[in-house]
Structure formats: C-alpha cells, structure tokens
Amino acid sequence: MLTSSDPTPSPADTLPEALACWARRRGDRTALTYLDHRVTPLGAAATLTWRELDERVTTVASVLYGMSSPGDRAAILMAQGIEYVVAFLACLRAGLVAVPLFEPTMAARLGSVLADARPSLVLTTRDRFRAVRTFLDRDGRGPRQVIAVDGLAGAPVRHGVPVLPGRDDPAYLQYTSGSTQSPSGVVLTHGNVMASAAQAARAYGAEPDRAMAVSWLPLFHDMGLVLAVAAPVYAGMAAVLMDPMAFLEKPVRWLHALAASPGAISAAPSFAYGYTASRISPADKASLDLGGVRALINGSEPVRAEVMDRFHDVFAECGLKPETHRSSYGLAEATVLVSVTAPGAPPRRVRFDRARLGAGEAVLADADDPRASMLVSIGRPAGQEVVVVDPVRRTEVPPGKVGELWVSGPNVGQCYWRQPVRSCHTFGALLGGGPKSLRWLRTGDLGVRFDGELYLTGRIKDLVIVDGRNHYPQDVEATAERAHPAIRPHALAAFGVPGPDGERMVVAVEHARWVDDEWLDPGELTGNVRVAVAREHGVAPYEVVVLPPDGLPRTTSGKVTRAGCRARYLAGTFSPVGAR
C-alpha cells in the first residue's frame, strides 16, 4: 500500500466559503483573468478581483436561490470564460448541484446528459441564449428555465442566500467523457472538492502571489475545473483562462500566457505537448521565456517519454527546465488527482521487459533490448491510499506485480448518479483481508509499484489478448505510429475483436492532414504497420484500417476512444481510405 500524508487543512469547508475568505483578505488583488483571442490576436484580458468575483457569485446565487430549491441540479451550458466560473461557484453558494457541461454543439451527448441529470434550470450567457433555448425546445428533455448569467451583473441581491451547504452535501455532477456507454455523472460532495483542491494545491505549490494557474482545458472536464477553478479558489491563487480552440488554433498562445504568469502552473494531456512542439516556429521562440514556469502537469492519458523529450528539446532554449514536467494520474471518480511525481527532478522512466510485463510482472529489460516497454512514473499518492490489487481475487499484490489500482481517500466521489448497481461495483469494493468498513474505488486501470513509485500500464478493458498473451494497446499504437511517416501522431487505436478462434487485433490509424489521398498508398502503410507490430510484439494485426483525419471517434476531451473504435469497427461504420 502506498500512502501520503494528509493534505493541508483547508481554510473553509466549501469553495464558496473559501471565496468569501479571500474576498475579505485579498479583495483588490486579481483573482481571475480570461484571455479572449477573438478580440485581439494576443488575447484581450478581462479580469475580476477577489471582491468582484465574490460579489458576482453572490448576485447570481441569490437569483438561483429564489428560482429553485437546495439540491436541485443546474446545468451550465456556455462557452469558456469568466461567466462559466461565476455560474459554477454561484450554483455551489446557492446550495444547488452544478452540472458543468458545454454549448449545444454535440447535441446527442448533451441531450443524453440532460436527460440523465434532470436539471431544474440551465445557465448560459446572453450571446448563447437563443441557441440554448432552441436546442432545449428541439430536444424536449431539458428544463424550461434558462438564465443568462451575464445579464444579472449589477442586479440587486433580492433573496439573499441563507443556505449554507455542508461538506457532505453534493456540490456537482462530473460527467465522464466516454462516448460508448450511457452518461455517467459522478456525485462529488463539497468535501470531495475541497480535499482534491487541497491535494492539488499542495502537490503543485499553489499559493498566493508566488504561483498562477494557467489553463486552456475545458471547464466541463475534471482536470480543467479542479486545476483552474477549485484549487485556485482554495489556495487564493490567481487563475488565467483561455478557450481550448484558441490553443488548438495557435498553441503559442498557451506559451505566451505561461511566460507572462509568474510561477505558472498548467496541465495538459500528453498529446498537447507533442502538438505544441510540432506547431512552434523559430520566430515564436525568439522572445519566449519559460524559465519562470513552476509546473507543467502531464495527465489524462499515459505519459509518453518521447513526447516529453521532444517538448523539452524544443523549448530548452527558452529556459524551460526538465524538472518542470510533472507526471500525474487521476480520474473523475476521484475528483481528479490520485498521484503525482515529486518536484525538483524529471519524472523517472524505466525500461521493462515487454513479454514479462504482458504476463503481469515488472522486470527490468536488458540494456540492449530494442523491444523494451518504456514507462514513465506517475509518482506517489497525493493525499490518499492506493493499492495494487488482483482484480479477480481482490487481494493486494506485492511490488513488481501488475494489478488494478484501487483508491481510498477524502477526494473519492460518492457514486454514479442514478446508477446504484454500477456504483456499488466501482465505489464499494472490499479488499480481501482488509477492514470491512473501508471501501475502495476500483479505477479499472492497471499499474504496478516499482521502487516505491507507481507506473500505469493500461486499462483492463483495453487489453488485447491474442493466443493467451496480453498486449497493451498503447505499446502497439506507439510502434504503429513509427511505422510510416504518413500516420498522424496520436491518432491511432489498437483494440481486440472476437474471432472464430479467439480475440484478434485490429489497428486503426488516421493519415496526416498533409497527405493527399491520391498520393497515399494504403497497402504500403498497412504493410509497414503489420511488419512493425509483428516484429516488436510477436502478433500480426488481423486488419489495419486507414482512415482520413478525424476519422476516429473521440471523447469530448479530444482523446481517441478505443471502445468507440471497436464499436464502429464491429458495426461496419468506418469509412477507410480507398474503400469503394
């Protein structure tokens, strides 16, 4: 069992209380900045001080309190920005259960989530009001009450907010981003949120005046919401936000925001670091100083060593220190954070024997083994207990053995909204030989303890088992990506499908945007992938599917979903390049 010390005690029991505390102590200091790149190329800055933010939240909360009852759900359907933060915190202050969502662009998923959450009202902004109202009328499953939050600025506080939520009261529903199953809303209490915020603040050094949160991550996702809103409000640390599309259009905007924010703390999934490194020109780096960045968090998907190296190679001349990089692991069911690497040194990386790892044992590879699996440490627990468990026997396995990661701590959510059976399986696991009163969160992720640190090896459901041997899809995908220059980076999926004699492996890839379909030879590409995978993994893919850019299904966070790929493949709904 790996355990860390308890997180630093919070100054309040809930985020609204913490906000009120900082409004009194740091009223005129800037709390929140939003860089709007639609107004100017460099991003027009809109700001709120701690006092202004507290007053705006109180105003909106008073209106919400007068229109609903404590415990009602309130869905947030708006673009990234200051109003999103105000709406979220106002829901919490009014005793409502916030449901952080997004604009009605992904209509099918949004409709399903609203039908599951059953909110009594929807919060949006004036410029999105008509689109949201039209969507709700057409969908027929949403509430009738829609409020434009920015239209309430300066309104008198009519009702007051006499309700005072407790630590055990639900704060919000965090819907997971999977796209192949019914919506799953994790019920997170005010206590869960404060515990996670404290863990993040302590792990990354969030503190007033010495650090600033910088984020382009969507606020409807766990990492974006906790690291850009909850942790800063908990710690009294200023936050700088920008829109995800602003980053995707020009990733240098993220870097400029980092350089302009003393002690910047920021987070992104692994693909974003590779994407940024590939989209930066020498001119972009000419005056870029990243020497003051405190922490760049790599989470949300397995950390790839070669991506870390590429990012640091590109930005070393800008003063970026290798130890700035912090690998982390978390999931929505644990609010967000579970483990993180220590500050002051780059995350440790270890080369393991691939065959032994597939058999469930972490053994160092020979120095000259070209087929070794390179894993990057995800550190140690960040304020909770983590055990590695045999998922069948439900007993803890010794260091060096691969098993399922189980988590217990104050940050672990309560259940899935309206899913009692699945909740019991996931949130109510009992460890064989352990105290019957202690229930564990089953993450579904496979990992191993090695030399005191955790390493993530894959997901139980994603394992491809061919001829009795386990193959981790991320290893196969990394091999396939290197097999041909026309394959788009980070746009692959390896998954298993049933066959007459057992499971078969399928590899689906997207070709790069610069590749012309008429120039591309799908036969050559698939042949290269087959040979590379067979040589390095000892298994020949049953089929290699070549797709155009954006041909693979993705979650709302932009990650390729293997389960979605498998479902489309079995349904025959892929549109391969060259197919007639």
TrEMBL record:
Residues 22-417 form the AMP-dependent synthetase/ligase domain. GO terms for molecular function: ligase activity. Keywords: Ligase. Belongs to the ATP-dependent AMP-binding enzyme family. This is Fatty acyl-AMP ligase. It comes from Amycolatopsis minnesotensis. The lineage of its organism: Bacteria, Bacillati, Actinomycetota, Actinomycetes, Pseudonocardiales.
